[in-house]
Amino acid sequence: MFRVMTKGFSQDYDRWTDALDQANSLVPKCKSLFNEVRILEKGQLIWSYSRMYKYPMYIGAGVYDRLARRFVLENTLTPDQALESETEPDGVESGEQLEIPLD
User: Strand pairing of 2-6 and 44-50?
Assistant: First the structure.
C-alpha cells in the first residue's frame, strides 16, 4: 500500500505506478522551497520531491531497484496478478536478479 502526501493532499494507492503518477502530477503545485511531495510504503518514506533538489529522491538502500522491478511487474502482468505479488515475483528471493525477457 502506497500513500501520496503533500500539503493539503493525502491518498492511498495499491499500485506503485498509480502512486507515482499522482505524485508526478502534484510536482508542479510544489511552488515553495518548503513544499514537498512524498510517497510512503507501509509508513516508510521511499520517494520525495522538493524544489530544493533537481530530481526526485528515492530514499533507502535498494529502493530504486525494488520499485523498478515492481514497475515492470505492474506493467507486464494483469492488474489482478500485479496486486497479488507484493514486491517480489513468485520464485524470486529478495536480492536475487530478476530476468525480464526483451522480446
Answer: unpaired
Taking the C-alpha atoms of residue 56 and residue 37, their distance in angstroms, rounded to an integer, is 9
Q: Which residue has the cell 506493467?
A: 75
Give the cell for residue 72: 515492470
Q: Which three cell numbers stand for residue 59?
A: 530514499
DSSP designation for 66: H
CA-closest candidate to residue 60, choices 76, 42, 75, 72: 42
What is the pTM for the complete model shown? 0.68
C-alpha cell at 32: 515553495
**Residues lower than pLDDT 70 in the chain:** 77-103
Helix, strand, or coil (residue 11): strand
Those residues with Cβ within 8 angstroms of residue 73's Cβ, 6 or more apart along the chain or in another chain: 82, 85, 89
